Amino acid sequence: MIVQAKGSVPFPFGVWMCAKLGVTIIVKDAEKGVIETPDRAAALKIVEFLKANGYPYATIEEKPQRR
């Protein structure tokens, strides 16, 4: 899952925030406002959190699994 805050300023998504939400992320590029996580539930939590904290354009983009 790719979580993006499209049309928003980059967001600081730190380790403390992951711990607070209880989520695991693999790749984060906060400069571009992009987070990658293997877990759909985690992606949904992150998007809800972002929307509640001033990032109304946060979205989830599902990419097909690479083999």
TrEMBL record:
Top-level taxonomic group: Bacteria
Protein name as it appears in the record: Uncharacterized protein
